[in-house]
Amino acid sequence: xxxxxxxxxxxxxxxxxxxxxxxxxxxxxTVGETVAVxxxxxxxxxxxxxxxxRYRPADEVAWSxxxxxxxxxxxxxxxxxxxxxxxxxxxxxxxxxxxxxxxxDLRKRLDAGQDVRxxxxxxxxxMQAAAVRATGEDAVALRAWCERAQRAxxxxxxxLCDDETLLALMDRWxxxxxxxxxERELRVTVDRERARFSSWYEMFPRSAATEPLRHGTLQxxxxxxxYVASMxxxxxxxxxxxxxGVGFRKGRNNSVTADQEDVGxxxxxxARAGGHKSVLDELGTLADFDALVTAAAALGIEIALDxxxxxxxxxxYVEQHPxxxxxxxxxxxxxxxxxxxxYQDIYPLNFESADWTGLWTELKSVFEFWIERGVKxxxxxxxxxxxxxxxxxxxxxxxxxxxxxxxLSEAFTRPKVMFRLAKLGFTQSYTYFAWRHNRWDLxxxxxxxxxxxxAEYFRPNFWPNTPDIxxxxxxxxxxxxxxxxxxxxxxxxxxxxIYGPPFEHGWCAPVRPGSEEYLNSEKYEIHHxxxxxxxxxxxxxxxxxxxxRDNPALQFNRTLTFHPIDxxxxxxxxxxxxxxxxxVVVVVNLDSxxxxxxxxxxxxxxxxxxxxxxxxxxxxxxxxxxxWYGSRNYVELDPxxxxxxxxxxxxxxxxxxxREYFQ
Amino acid sequence: xxxxxxxxxxxxxxxxxxxxxxxxxxxxxTVGETVAVxxxxxxxxxxxxxxxxRYRPADEVAWSxxxxxxxxxxxxxxxxxxxxxxxxxxxxxxxxxxxxxxxxDLRKRLDAGQDVRxxxxxxxxxMQAAAVRATGEDAVALRAWCERAQRAxxxxxxxLCDDETLLALMDRWxxxxxxxxxERELRVTVDRERARFSSWYEMFPRSAATEPLRHGTLQxxxxxxxYVASMxxxxxxxxxxxxxGVGFRKGRNNSVTADQEDVGxxxxxxARAGGHKSVLDELGTLADFDALVTAAAALGIEIALDxxxxxxxxxxYVEQHPxxxxxxxxxxxxxxxxxxxxYQDIYPLNFESADWTGLWTELKSVFEFWIERGVKxxxxxxxxxxxxxxxxxxxxxxxxxxxxxxxLSEAFTRPKVMFRLAKLGFTQSYTYFAWRHNRWDLxxxxxxxxxxxxAEYFRPNFWPNTPDIxxxxxxxxxxxxxxxxxxxxxxxxxxxxIYGPPFEHGWCAPVRPGSEEYLNSEKYEIHHxxxxxxxxxxxxxxxxxxxxRDNPALQFNRTLTFHPIDxxxxxxxxxxxxxxxxxVVVVVNLDSxxxxxxxxxxxxxxxxxxxxxxxxxxxxxxxxxxxWYGSRNYVELDPxxxxxxxxxxxxxxxxxxxREYFQ
Lengths: 663, 663
Prior knowledge:
Two copies of one chain form a homodimer.
Chain A: E1 11-17, E2 27-30, E3 34-43, E4 49-57, E5 64-67, E6 69-72, E7 75-81, E8 86-96, H1 98-111, H2 117-133, H3 136-151, H4 154-162, H5 164-173, E9 180-181, E10 186-191, E11 198-202, H6 218-230, E12 235-238, H7 286-298, E13 302-307, E14 310-311, H8 316-320, E15 336-338, E16 341-343, E17 347-348, H9 356-371, E18 377-381, H10 388-401, E19 406-410, H11 415-424, E20 428-429, H12 439-450, H13 452-457, H14 472-492, E21 495-499, H15 538-550, E22 561-562, E23 570-576, E24 583-589, E25 596-601, E26 614-619, E27 625-629, E28 632-637, E29 644-654, E30 660-662
């Protein structure tokens, strides 16, 4: 066993957190956030140590350093801000602090009335060493301290232990020796704010026509933008807009035979007219698409495209690159299957192809094609059926050039697979939210994904419905269920989305009992939507999105906390802003039929509210105001009126004129 | 971002456990144990995967492999035996299993009555590929299967999905492609059995004389060996046997002035006569020491030496290597301090010495000196006041030559420091056991160090007393406290020790109230012990150690489980052997004064005992037998009689002659 490089590195640095899989993967933040880092650090013996957090943008060389503070039990904590897009790197270092040890011991010796003449000389030597390295006024000051120490009178001696300017000078100039640096450099991926806080609206462009029966176009989508903006959404996500395959095309309600008028399923991508880089003729042209991106941007909306890496039998890839697919012994290309089910309209790509580098390069170029047309947000279809190494490489490559990219992973599969995709680089992820109905399930699941290590890399995006998911709760719960799921999605998760207009119009008919597929699903046919319907949830959605924009508390998930409430049908949780000034409390009735009431318990002490102090609960949905006292208060929610409160807590403030008001 | 070497490695391996600090440190086992390894493993899509555990002795090149089994939720488990001393290495690998995927899907297709002619050809191709690689009978068999597949009749087709011999052939010969190997190789340090299961006895050789006043010798220790053996101990640990310093020598009861007759403290190591490689004249010679090692071995006892790396002012190092110590500005050498306390009889070594490599080399040679004289067990004094990198290097070096070494870390300090030393290579560790008295404290602490990750590298050694530790519980609890602490130490921890004869003679007087130091401590003076005392705990200790030897359950800690009991003054726990055949249940009365009774609840279902089935609780301490029924049974312990049960559970077995007996 060889000697280590420097066996005098006496400080140990262990258990740095956050650290994902031994630093294999980065954690995630958005610009302007901070990264709080903790580590175990200690030395042999009884010397004091100094522990520092080092960080830098990954493409810079010089480290910045901030001191870490002791939390007790050899745990240390520090934090640093991330102020630009891209990756940052951080690590922890520490060294024995001889000056602090000396200072601490000198104080004890003086208190015990010991002769400290020799001890003071030890300190003076350290000050001397610091003075030699110091420049300007610091050098002068250190030489002066050194002389005072050598004079060794009781007054100055006390100052040697207590004076903070001396300590600061020594921190600055006494070279820490034998510094231990943690063995790994850890990464943070810094995204833009919308990676964390986003409101998505999904719609089928072909159903956007203003009159019935006509195939909608991208121009119709442009006309639809003010409607989307009126509800406060900032991401408009379109299912695939590419040419749709003809071979084995599915008919209405997923029928295996299509007739002449059937428009097919947008996810059966590719036809003679083109593949993933083309626009379906009926929707318009690339120029129309460019116009849509521009018009949306003017309203603060970004267009998100769907990336579904699979091909219809008519996709140009099939002829150009048959080696990117599996071939069956009879010479045909292997279609998608979930035996005994066959999906003959879909050819999956073969990620075990000998030409996997060619395949990867082409797939990446699909992203690049649309990025260059202004698309910076993608919803990726079934990423869990493509090889994991591809995603890590592809996302890594793309974000090197475009760190502003946002990729939403549509993987409704086993938890570890979903988490792996998030680690590999997906910015946001679909979740099981749609299937979590009761209090226990919601509390457990939402806690799991908003706390601890998972929350460091997995950013949930909650969807009450999608074109594939019409839950039993929405099928049977009526309007209260739609409102409840909207409020839950929009307040529990800082990113959420709905699939409309079926959501705002309360579509709830399944294709058959027990199915989560819509009857007459837009996946297989064109619909015409009457946006002026009196029963539309549009105004409520607009209000919920305005509440999200006005309340920073709802723009993060990290502070989400569930609160006790003595009725299983009621759910209560709160969120607060980083600085604690904005506090939102949400109460939801989980019962679609009946009024439910109970007492909720809030930890008002944590909010700085005394037991005797009244505070105002301002319901931002109804503008009603309630005066609460103490931690335990009554709530009552009638689903036939409104199944949720979104309270903003207002504390009483006494003004100069002694007129009470609530901030 | 470059392409990975093989982007077709579709299987992910994550969260392998056990893994200490990302593989930075090994886990620990003893020869003959197994290592159970778990990992998350999954692939994209729906293919089956195969996951294998790889392992090898660290100094061999070829891996052995065992299949891992799915535990559900993408978790896999496998295990391997460690059969020789030294380090082993393990890791996990996995690949998509196309044959298993094909077999599973073929079954579904057959069940659905589909035309599978093309699918069968896909399987036949795989069998063909396997046949080409196979040799001998396997090749013949695979070719036969291939032909059967190509004939494609319903009967054989079913066999293709179900036949386990075919599956085994394919497992053996179909080359797994694009195998993912976990990114780290993890280590196991394999020690001999005594590293895990050991019974220590500590005594001062100078108090071993058979008559009062005379300074005991190593020859006296030889004469004392039958006594130690009679109690069943297998490690005899001696405080330092080296020349003792004269400068600033401590007198009786740690007095700062010593008179002419004072023998000094054995931990003030070094005098003109020699240092860490010499024997104190009064104790005898190196030849006597060799004789002691040999005589002990004949009784199944190993001699453990104390390694205390510190020096008296008279140690030869002080003159030969003044640079290994800190020098004060007045030219004197820095003595040990805990300001304002001064320990002028001790010079600590300076691990920041410029000649640290020289210092390390010399310290290692101290171990080597005694190892070459037959010592394979060391108790290391205050390892936490020496630089951590030294221990890792020193223990690593030593164990490369002598993997049978056992080092006990005497670090009574903060938990993370104690755990770090265990990670760095110490075989066993002192613990806080001595200060854990009540049920909650014992349960929490013992659970912490016998379960989970900590138990993978930290092996506790429980001591009711040491020359430095006479706990308040022993001072005030009388004989019941001594018995209780003996039983707890010997049954909770597979390694334990006592400091005698003060332990078996019930020494309980502190040097002053509130102190844990003994009055007239053997650390500073010679004692004469009357081993024939009628009140000696010797017979009980002998019985406890015999119980430990007879019951494999007590030779491991991994199965330790606490059981509910409705009296806070009673503690109940069980241990069982790896194979489950030996089960020991311990019940202890934690109250030194009063009889305590309560109902204990045992999970008898886990032991294979039905609710209606009687079972016998055989108290191995008293030989009493109790018949218990069901999970809830009464216990009663009178501290004035015996404050503990050590039960062996005997189940009823029906013999051929229908005469009941209990196994």
